[in-house]
Amino acid sequence: MKIGKSKTTKRIAEYGLITLGAILYGAATALMIDPNNIAPGGLTGLAIVLNRIVNIGTGLWFMIMNIPILIIAIWKFGIRFTVSTIYCTAVISWVTDLCTKYLSGFIVRDTFLGATFGSAILAVAIGFVFKCHATTGGTDVIIKLLRIKYPHIKTGMLYLLTDVVILMIAGFVFGDFKASLYSFMSVMVTSYCLDLVLYGRDEAKLIYIISDKPDIITSRLLEELDIGATHVFAKGAYSGEDKKVIMCAIKKRLSPLAEDIVRDEDPNAFMIISSASEIYGEGYKSYFDERI
């Protein structure tokens, strides 16, 4: 009984987050993106373009174009995944047209603000929905399919690649080169912010330290910075001497402190510092988290 309640509670929480994401998505589209002739890519951008040709409402266009894609979603992902996506798509469509009709006084008529803040809100909204194993419909379903086949490519980059055609169409319909540039900026902001929401700022530094005082340096790194370190045993190619190389992954903000410790203990130490974009393990991401 407790397990059933736990699953129900979790599902309710997921739908609450999906609803919040859908409302944010629809509001940002209606109040910041659409009024400034910005096509943020995907079906949302295409819906904005089509609404300029046949004015039946951006939200309605969004729903109409999603129908064949949702059929594909049912086929590929099953009804459980698709129900939440259908729900999210319907809420986005309804909120978009509702905000356009009744909240016109809150419209942000500034192209730069629309392209930046509006796109950032879209990214947060999509991130909320993705974390609940649903999508906002449209190209999100296509992105989900691509992520299965190409898991090494991040979600934000896939959005960027699929949005190029939409931007070209938008530039032609709007007949405004500046609008195309703002649309491209919108896609870039969404791509960056989406990766930030989904993956976090877990950039770190990978440091290799070759020193004559490995034990002292290791001890200070462990005690003063509270980080892990590994000793890699190597042999100098020229000298033939055995070496104890210190290897550690460290948060970006702690990297200068680690460098100071090495400099204090051994100014002649040889250090290699490189960037590490994804790290799994204690203090970082879990191995068992589902890749989004």
TrEMBL record:
Localization terms from the record: Cell membrane
CDD domains, sorted: YitT_C
UniProt membrane topology term: Multi-pass membrane protein
Record keywords: Cell membrane, Membrane, Transmembrane, Transmembrane helix
InterPro entries, per database record: DUF2179 (IPR019264), N-reg_PII/ATP_PRibTrfase_C (IPR015867), UPF0750_membrane (IPR051461), YitT (IPR003740)
4Fe-4S listed as a keyword: no
Any Pfam family matching the protein: YitT_membrane
Principal localisation: membrane
Chain ranges of the DUF2179 domain: 228-281
Gene Ontology CC: one annotated term: plasma membrane
Record bears the keyword Cell membrane: yes
Transmembrane segments: 12-33, 53-74, 113-134, 155-175
Name of the protein: DUF2179 domain-containing protein
Organism per entry: Butyrivibrio hungatei
Lineage, opening ranks: Bacteria, Bacillati, Bacillota, Clostridia, Lachnospirales
